Amino acid sequence: MTHASTQDESRFDRGQRALSRIDGSAGEKVVASLADIAPDFARYVIEFPFGDIYCRPDLGLRDREIATIAALTALGNAAPQLKVHLEAGLNVGLSRDEIVEIIMQMAVYAGFPAALNGLFAAKEVFTARDEQQASGEANGGSDVAVA
To answer: What is the pLDDT of residue 2?
Structure first.
């Protein structure tokens, strides 16, 4: 089954919308960081994963982030991407406890080192989010992102 789209919406536009919804500013930073070295690759990141795959109808965004967090944890060597998707998981409704369980599950299939790396990445993301929220609360709540 293919994803639903209108004739007027391009893969890029659909991907931009999905990227913004899922990854927010973290995803936009990744794409922007590629602009000077590989602008075509930045476009591919928007079009293929987000414009084509994430927009397919048979899995929700929450389920897709569970799979992505598990896969990136299992790789064991993708901490920057894992951190972006840990944020994305929180953005689409995963709890911190669920994320920790997903990563712990990977110890069975990817080994303890990969799971440990994933847990340390999660700890960094959770701590940064707590600090951002505390800072936002101190500033009247204007900087707090709703997860």
So the answer is: 46
146 token code pair: 């709703």
Q: Position of tokens 């919406």? A: 9
102 near 66, Cβ under 8 Å? yes
* Contact assessment for residue 91 and residue 26, using Cβ atoms and an 8 Å cutoff: no
Contact 24, 145 (CB under 8 A): yes
Paired tokens of 126? 């959770």
- Neighbouring CB atoms inside 10 A of 53's CB total 14
81 CB burial (10 A radius; 0-12, 13-18, 19+): middle
pLDDT per 10-residue tile (average), the chain, 147 residues = 56 93 84 92 94 94 97 96 95 97 98 97 97 79 34
